[in-house]
Write a structure and sequence with these properties.
Blueprint: E1 2-7, E2 10-12, E3 25-30, E4 33-35, E5 55-58, E6 61-66, E7 69-71, E8 77-80, H1 84-90, E9 94-106, E10 109-113, E11 121-132, E12 136-141, E13 149-161, E14 166-171, E15 188-209, E16 216-248, E17 255-270, H2 276-279, E18 280-283, E19 286-291, H3 294-297
Parallel strand pairs: 1-3, 2-4, 3-6, 4-7, 5-8, 6-9, 7-9, 8-10, 9-11, 10-12, 11-13, 12-14, 13-15, 14-15, 15-16, 16-17, 17-18, 17-19
Amino acid sequence: MQNVLVENVTLFKSPMWMLHPAYSDDVVVRGVRFVSADPDNAPSAEGTGPNGDGIDVDSCRNVRISDCFFSTSGDCIVIKSGRDNDGLRTNRPTEYVTITNCIMYKGHGCVVIGSETSGGIRDLTASNIVSKGTDCGIRIKSQRGRGGLLENFRFDNWVIEDAQKQAFEITTRYTDTPEAPLSEKTPVFRNFAFSNITVINAAKVASIVGLPEKTIEQLRFSDLNATGQAGFMVDLVNDLELHHVRVTTPAGSAFTFAHASDVVLDDVVGNGSAEVAKFATMSDTTNVRERAPLAARRP
């Protein structure tokens, strides 16, 4: 399909996903309310659905989602591109996607990319998002067997409050799968940027997990201020930059790095300390470069 417009309506009581554009070009979703869970935990005339994702975009090009409200019993916005062998055969990516000016009051994840990634997903921005009480904020997920290249994502200007699981989850180990050599069925994640984000009272600030045969690459977090019961956890990542990042947890390390390389810590503070040895736990992590907080660099 081409030239699809969904505007100024409320979708609810869906038996599954509320809106599912697939193999479409030039999709605009504007001013839509997606309601499959009552935002106040009260009996609702709008009701719930058993698998109530808001919008699932699948193998589409030129997609604009803006000015929408979500209270869902599944994920709020999901970006997909085909599953396993069928997705690899079709090889149709989702690309050129913008998401902006949305409120996520409830849902499994605010903006979720995957886990069906076989056709690839690229060139996506999500900005000006406020969430309250979702399980996750930003979630990017795939696994062995899915394949697909995911690249060039930017997330800017977010507030994520009371995330029940993680504010950020980036994983190529979404489910347990047998070890496998690098192949076209190995998902590739690279070049993701996250900036100007406030995280309040998350169960965990971040969980980022790659594969031994293919690490996650080129991640940048800038101007992040986060509080959570658990901190910022990284495993099997290469080329990670943290610029002007504050993470506060009630106990334990604010940052945990394992099997990571080429890590830049620029004005990073954990649990009120700017000394990496005090706020971070590192194992099998190499080439860590540090820059002191701005206040410490002033003459």
